[in-house]
Amino acid sequence: GEARRIQREEETRLRQEQDREYREALEADRAREAERQAEREREERERQEREEKERRAREEKEDALAKAMSLVGDEPPAGTPDTARVRLTLPNGRRIDRRFRADDTLEVVRAFLTVHFHENDVGIVHFSLLTSFPKRT
User: Fold this and answer.
1) Which of 24, 64, 94, 97 has the most beta carbons within 10 angstroms of its beta carbon?
2) Looking at the whole model, is its pTM more than 0.70?
3) What does pLDDT average to over the chain?
4) Nearest 5°: phi and psi at 132?
5) What is residue 91's three-state secondary structure?
6) Which residues pair with 87 in a beta bridge?
7) Rounded to whole angstroms, how far apart are CA atoms 50 and 62?
8) pLDDT value at position 69?
9) Tens digit of pLDDT for each residue in 95-129?
10) Which residues 6+ apart lie within 8 Å of 67 measured at CB?
11) 77: DSSP letter
12) CB 113 within 8 A of CB 63
């Protein structure tokens, strides 16, 4: 009887220990799965944020181009009174000559360059305008 009771207690203790180890392993698996799920959700959020940022940048670029196109009219024909001929030199040395109306602003010149660069696949996005006229002595 005593040996049987000790064996039953040992089996019960062993079963409780196995149940505890099983619950711990199950909880660890759940925690790992929750971490993996959180990581997937974080990666998805980052991907969506990246795509949204790229979409906004594309829209801003398209809006800027549309605004530039709306500012730039046709080039006045040669001999038109009240025009100015402007020569623009690119960093690669290439020159762009164009006539502008006397009342066109530098914003129109910048808009012309933006449109010109876009239409001719020139990879210049940020630029500044400098003058070498009149020559300073």
Assistant:
1) 64
2) no
3) 92
4) -115, 15
5) coil
6) 97
7) 18
8) 92
9) 999 999 999 999 999 999 999 999 998 888 888 88
10) 111
11) P
12) no
